[in-house]
């Protein structure tokens, strides 16, 4: 039925929450998140699933939930290495709101890839859930820190570009539309469309659309060498730089002795042209990323440290 239509199957999203398995096969100390317990029947089921899929189409890949302790258990205790093609992660930020403060934005991918190689598991990783919620906190303690709609838009772009730069093959935002769980429930407001306003768009929906338009064909070539965050790209032969601050805003000077002018595009598609005077241009950089284009090649290569490709 699906042969020729799907190239990847996900085995199960967050298996610890699947079908009450963590209650039917509980962890010895009651730690529902850990796989000792539900991990055994889950692994056996997915191995059978993989055998069935490959009997129909050997080219189809199977994706497993990629938490470190889960993969270690699946491989070391249940012999699942031959069945794993892709691992999936959910790098939510619960205690900090800035994407760049999380280890997932840099060191995680190198560390995780080394672990996968050691277990003889393919190193392709997908971010199958990540997001920020715009709910209104009613004063009760909650693991999610609410963000504004404009912060959500900024963090969406910053998250995609950071994870794709450091090692993710694909990134999926959670989620398309808000859900009707109540005004103070954080799970209600991860969407980029407003559920209670006839699916009107949040700023994050506009930012997502412009990000796809600007970066669909962009290949990262390096990390910005200045004081701000950001990455350099080759976009079908054109030079492209994306910059932002963790929070707030500041002015930064770019030294461009050979460039006459640059275009600065914000995440909502608005374009401003800046002239380069006396070999430099001053750019205002904020927590909302900007995309700068128009560099002469010699000037562009001085702006970033080349990307290290993990083999």
Structural description of this entry:
The protein has 311 residues and is of the alpha/beta class. 25% of the residues lie in helices and 24% in strands. It has 7 helices and 16 strands. The protein has helices at residues 21-24, 39-56, 68-76, 107-118, 149-166, 203-215, 297-301, and strands spanning 8-10, 61-65, 86-89, 125-127, 168-171, 193-194, 200-201, 218-224, 229-235, 238-244, 249-255, 261-266, 271-275, 280-286, 290-293, 304-306. The strands form 4 sheets. It has a 7-stranded antiparallel β-sheet. β2, α3 (68-76) and β3 (86-89) form a beta-alpha-beta unit. α5 runs parallel beside α6 (203-215). The radius of gyration is 22 Å and the shape is globular. The model has no long low-confidence stretch (mean pLDDT 93).
